[in-house]
Amino acid sequence: MNSIKILKKSITFSANGQDCKLQDTNITQGEFSEDFNFGMYFSTSSGLCIVNLNTQEVRKIDMSVGVCFYTFQKYPSFKFGIGIVLAHDNSPEGERFWVHELSLEKPRLSDRKKSWR
Questions:
Q1: What's this model's pTM, rounded to 2 decimal places?
Q2: Are 67 and 88 in contact (CB under 8 A)?
Q3: What's the CA gap between 13 and 21, in Å, rounded?
Q4: What is the rounded CA–CA span in Å between residue 40 and residue 6?
Q5: Sign of CA pseudo-dihedral 103, 27, 67, 64
Q6: In this structure, what DSSP letter does residue 9 have?
């Protein structure tokens, strides 16, 4: 059974018969990639992070200035099967919330892909 457990100072991803426990504070959300090889989480202290659940390597993802993390959303057409919803301060095209795709090559988010509601 795959699960995510968020405690006060840690997050544990349990997938494919293995546990990956990470120490961090102020974690608000966590999610698995579609294939359960990666975990993603957001914490107000560390920001947006992606974890290789096989190697337990954690990479911080750069977010643009003027955006705030909002939530994770399933998007099967995206590489990891998950999109990152960000609130934009400047509300491009009159929309505040936009879905972004994650890239591991240069740990960063794509430009906005589509509006989110």
A1: 0.88
A2: yes
A3: 6
A4: 12
A5: negative
A6: S
